[in-house]
Amino acid sequence: EYIAFPSAKFRDKVKATPEELRKAFEAAKAQYAMPEKQSFQVLVVDQAKFEKTMSVSEAQVRAAYASSMDSFRSPERVKARHILLMTQGKSDAEKKTALTKAQDLLKQVKAGGDFADLAKKNSQDPGSAQNGGELGFIVRGQTVPEFEKFAFSAKPKDISDIVTTEYGYHIIQVLEKEAARVKPLDEVKANIEEQLRKQGVGEKVQAAADQARAALGKAPGSAADVAKQFGLDLIPVSKADAGQAVPGL
After folding, report:
1. Strand partners, 78
2. Exposed / middle / buried, residue 168 (Cβ in 10 Å: 0-12, 13-18, 19+)
3. Which of 248, 247, 208, 206 is nearest to 229 (CA)?
4. CA-to-CA distance for 129 and 138, rounded, in angstroms?
5. What's this model's pTM, rounded to 2 decimal places?
């Protein structure tokens, strides 16, 4: 059995004095601290919105192309494939075996054997073997000198003899060659337009921000009108705590 004394029944009999209230408040003052709150408005210069209104003329594209001709120069390049038998870290006996195998593979290729199939089955270059030995397009200085010497002197479809490099024994076939050239305007037009659009948008965004700030400086209470005038987004924020996220940002 128990006897209960509900505190609510005694509450009206307790009368705290102003002094007691003050002491209790002072002792637990931190519990009643309220953070600073601010109400404000944010003007947002939305870059995506400005991009939709940004246009680039044909004359601007041609002028940019003419003034940046050097950046559109493409060096001579060669598309090649190879079969590699590695010799790095191998003994002389192992190197001799590798050379014998390379010579046999060369005979097969010269006799009309399927280069890609032979590369997949025999090449020890992990980066190209599964692609039939294809290396894609290469430019001067991208490969070792011995490899480069053949690749850039041969004609398309030519097959090398055994080429020895620091990596091992190569059988190389040139697939395509492209002479050094300046890319025509049609080929780079889309990239130029994109660059000019980004540049123009950046300038418009900065100008809009500067103009809006100047206008607000003259009339601080005109945020809505300024936003409309310069095509900005207005975000009102009411009684926000420090660090509180602004909606939409």
Report:
1. 138, 177
2. buried
3. 208
4. 17
5. 0.54
